[in-house]
């Protein structure tokens, strides 16, 4: 094994062990007792249930990640990448078709490995704790729809990337960067009307107290809305959520029916005020710019490692190719991606505090967001005392207790 193989192997091992340690510490941290702030929404039985859920999910995650790593290492060291490459070359197709076949088989293999875990998570763990509402027929339909979308949307993008790096020389990374950026923007624009309705039903929120309160708040803070919709999230889960879709003056609010059923009008307005805060503070734009720049760096580095002989030797592949370069580079890039994810999550947690501050200071009832967060933590069986290392590695949002205490500080100042 050469230096590239050692880097990938060490990175995969260190990342795995770091996440393993953080999971163990997180489970231990959860037994520190129910925080006083949550005693009005939790009783001891509910808190015990939340701890059981945390242990079940964490242990299952640790097991599934162990299997994923073991499968990857076995596939790697038995020469799976090289065997697959020889097979696609024997088909006698063009480099583009061979590339689609090579990466397609790897994606299919990864999907087959992950499918049993997805089924167990949904129909055993989530079912045991009362979250799952997904029927087997819905689960299968979602799989088929996702596969069709992956083929119809993913395959053309992959084909374009392969073609760029096969045929456009030193300009390939620029064309790939520009093409994927444009595709991402178009996808965000059409997803609310063409893709999301394939999985959920969007119905306009009926006239009434909630709609009037939302529209009144949006007008007061200068946030134009095209529509407010209710999603049938209860078809799949009892969990609650809300989000915005659309660009410019075509912004839409989407509320899960489970959120509406369990929260007051004041709390729902506060939740949406938090999301509006992200727009007002330019967080969405910042994230888009950072992700775009990151993608440009990735394609630039990929162009430098294209057809790297040592990289192919590390994965026991004899002949170089664009498609295999793509796969091997992303394995080599994994430590950078891991570090970037930590930095981006730190930024995201900061943004969440800022959006909370915006909601607390602009809502008629500034404390309603804290009340909503407590109810959401209870209904989702959230971990109220996560370990700092686990938060550092995994959380895009601050722990809910920190958010509530920060809101209390804002309201008291």
From TrEMBL:
CDD domains: M48A_Zmpste24p_like. InterPro entries: CAXX_Prtase_1, Peptidase_M48, Peptidase_M48_N. Keywords: Hydrolase, Membrane, Metal-binding, Metalloprotease, Protease, Transmembrane, Transmembrane helix, Zinc. The keyword Hydrolase applies. Its cofactor is Zn(2+). Binds 1 zinc ion per subunit. Residues 26-201 form the CAAX prenyl protease 1 N-terminal domain. Belongs to the peptidase M48 family. This is M48 family metallopeptidase. Residues 204-409 form the Peptidase M48 domain. The chain crosses the membrane at residues 6-25, 60-84, 96-123, 143-165, 171-191, 284-302, 322-344.
